[in-house]
Amino acid sequence: MCIRDSFRGEQGIDEGGVRKEFFQLITRELFDSKWGMFIPKNNEQYLWFNPHSFECTVNFELIGMVLGLAIYNSILLELNLPIVVYKKLLGQQTSLADLREIDPVLHNSLEKLLEFEGDIENSLCLTFSVEEEVYGAIQSFELIPGGRETAVTQENKVSYVKSYVDWYLNKSIEKQFTPFLKGFYKVVTGNIIKIFTPRELNVLICGSQKLDFNELERAMEYEDGFDKDSQVIKDLWAILHSFNEEQKKKFLFFCTGTDRAPIQGLGSLRFIVSRWGPDSDKLPTAHTCFNHLLLPEYSSREKLREKLLTAMNYSEGFGLF
């Protein structure tokens, strides 16, 4: 199920780079908060299924298919989903620990409840139910049948925490997650995916945010008159090693179409820098299909830095030269 894409009005030939941008753009659109299918959690670090979404289930199925197609086409997606999503994709049981990434305040409260040795029934007045604000109105959801009338006590607090976690991570989003899972396994067939741990599956789909540019430097190849001892190459690496994390992400995105490292790390990339003529005012360019940077032999480090930063900041879109 390999995909080949083109963009109307753009000249890009899809040898991989156009496909990368297609996946990035469609993922960005599908996960946009304007559709209300996902909601930010933990100070917007992660996206979580909106249990009260008005979107039809087929859209969640589509998102699952996009994740599966990304694996099939070796495309890394810019997603921040909590590890428990990948755990659920692999059919593994969820637990209280999985709540920490999504809602650390709730996680800590439930942990403290388990540690509490006082009179829960009279001091905390909890029942097997949850109240949530849904579009401006407070709604109550029972964790078990008759939960609103069932008090939480020392004797049943473990059952309460398990029921709360199960409701939060599973039952409350069942309508959204079930089609998402179906879509994923429409593309990812067989049991080979089960060899991965949840964290490995996350890296397989989204890549690693750990960017080791020393690994990348050791793996770099040079063509058309450049080698590791060329002055412009020495200048390039001095600039890259001086970049902050955000600038490193932008450089990687400019050259490869993604700001993440593959599961094997940056050292596994076949990355090429080629001489693109003598010193000039041209900006560097890149073939993201091949992880190939084309670099004029700029006369100074300052000029190289200026031109590279300009190119990096305007890196979306395709053209032929």
How does this structure look, described?
There is one protein chain. The protein is α/β, with parallel strands linked by helices. The chain has 13 helices and 8 strands. It has helices spanning 17-30, 57-72, 83-89, 99-102, 104-115, 120-123, 157-169, 174-187, 198-206, 213-219, 231-242, 245-256, 301-312, and strands at 38-41, 46-49, 129-134, 137-142, 221-223, 272-275, 285-287, 292-295. Strand 3 and strand 4 (137-142) form a beta hairpin. Helix 2 (57-72) runs parallel beside helix 8 and helix 3 crosses helix 9 (198-206). It is elongated. The chain starts with 16 loop residues before the first helix and ends in a 9-residue tail after the last helix. The relative contact order is 0.13. The model is unreliable at 2-7, 9-15 and 317-321 (pLDDT under 50).
Short structural description:
Helices cover 42% and strands 11% of the residues.
Strand-helix topology:
Elements: H1 17-30, E1 38-41, E2 46-49, H2 57-72, H3 83-89, H4 99-102, H5 104-115, H6 120-123, E3 129-134, E4 137-142, H7 157-169, H8 174-187, H9 198-206, H10 213-219, E5 221-223, H11 231-242, H12 245-256, E6 272-275, E7 285-287, E8 292-295, H13 301-312
Parallel strand pairs: 5-6, 6-8
Antiparallel strand pairs: 1-2, 3-4, 7-8
Helix pairs in contact: 2-8, 3-9, 12-13
